[in-house]
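Margin note: ligand = guanosine-5'-triphosphate.
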Amino acid sequence: PSVKGKVEFQEVSFSYEKEGTTVAGLNFSVKEGETVALVGPTGAGKTTVVNLLSRFYDADKGQILIDGHDIQKVKRSSLRSHMAFVLQDSFLFEGTIFENIRYGRLDATDEEVIKAAKLANADSFIKKLSKGYSTVLSQEGRGISQGQKQLLSIARAILADPSLLILDEATSSIDTITEMKIQEALQRLMKGRTSFVIAHRLNTIQKADQILVLHDGGILEKGTHEELLVNKGFYHSLYHS
Ligand code: GTP
Ligand code: MG
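Resulting structure:
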């Protein structure tokens, strides 16, 4: 792909309101292909970081660079064409499973959709539905489980083949077998792409190339799991609490 996915935040500050700051002076850089885990208590700024990266909001101060280019100088549509989102409430629309997965890349053939679904471990449950890939889904995804919705959104992202991936890990309980399928599919999806994960699972956090510990809109600590444990700071206290 044309975008390699190196990401830099340079002194990035932002507020949702006119007054005050939500995140302030964020500095970090991510090499292409790395996985970054965003951790920290509620309200720390994790979602805000990915909102800024995807330009759902623009930074008030500082710069965000992708492959050295200021994202504010890139059209939102072109920026997002290099990104895929796998969110907790994966968004489905009323349409067939074919159409819902193809949303990742509108020119994909049926064979390509099925191939992506297989890589996402979604093919086996889809085939068991009465109309298979032609089953019509409702916006709420009635009749399929939370975990199956996640598998569909992973299939969509695999098909899109983005350079940057934004993942909000599910907190809801998903049965163990589906959870294993999701983890395996995510590993395939994340391999070789820069991934920002709002991480809730210890396993994901431990494996990340870099952990950003956010607190009150700032980066309190950053490093790998091992590094942060050695530091005996906030992360260490979270881990041992
Ligand atoms: P959790 O998702 O709860 O774990 O928190 P988070 O780390 O994702 O925090 P987030 O980035 O959503 O929020 C950071 C701060 O910005 C918090 O104080 C929020 O109340 C505030 N905030 C988030 N979204 C909005 C918004 O749309 N409008 C306003 N005014 N404030 C917001
Ligand atoms: Mg959040």
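The radius of gyration is 18 Å.
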